[in-house]
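Hi all, long-time lurker, first post. I run a small reading group and we've been trying to get comfortable going from sequence to structure in the token notation. Rather than ask abstract questions, I figured I'd post a concrete chain and ask someone more experienced to write out its structure so we can walk through it together at our next meeting. Sequence below, copied exactly:
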Amino acid sequence: MPLKFLGQDTGVLPRIDRYELIAELASGGMASVYLARLVGMGGFERFFAIKRLHPHLGHEEAFVSMFLDEARIVAGIRHQHVVPVLEVGASDHGYYLVMEYIEGENLGTFLTQAIETKSPIPPNVVVRILLDVLAGLHAAHEHVDADGHPIGLVHRDVSPQNILIDTNGVARIADFGVAHATSRLSSTRSGQLKGKVAYMAPEQARGEGVSPRSDVFAAAIVLWESLTSRRLFLANNEAVTLNRLLFEPIPELEEVAPSIPRGIARVLARALQRAP
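-- Answer (accepted) --
Happy to help. Here is the structure in token form:
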């Protein structure tokens, strides 16, 4: 996605507190993410990613609580395969999180290119990426509070778009904005689906309780698609996607990509079992 550079009309970069906003990296229903720069003495310059809650949601207590929850929970996870939250703040422009800027691309971009060009991502590269992601997820799942009690963290939105790959090939899991934790300040409204249906575990799609196994199922979908350059459940509309996820037979990897080692196929067959 081409960058949307800011300040081109005026020649002046907008700011959030001491950070200059250079370009918009992404935007969703709840927040936008910007490439930001911090300038200091002696030519010091460092880039960050700033996630800003949309201003019109700044007066909605539920959205503010969810946004602050992400900062509070993720700030405590210190792992090389989790994108860290470095700061949380509030300004005239609303609430924002400061995160490490990962120079690179998300797996979703590579996967879309692979599907469109029919040029699969090399399997050894795919496996390396997913091992990084699983290590980051494990760190999140094992995260404890200040008293050493597990917080029961589940990401709930493991998808190609939330896997960032830097220029050195290191992958990190990002965006815990819809994560579930027993210690959340905010609560999820009953019946609401959180995450992307095409990358949900069946129990999550049914609105039932989630666990670390739910993230493993989602990671398995990402692995299956990345190895085959095909979509597993995604259809033209959400109803068909949901039906595929919950009821239709899941194609075995060996049938779709027979060149993939059988050991990987066995791992996927287990990880994609619908029963947790």
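A couple of things your group might point at:
Strands lie at 4-5, 15-16, 19-27, 31-39, 45-53, 85-91, 94-100, 104-106, 163-166, 171-173.
The longest strand covers residues 19-27.
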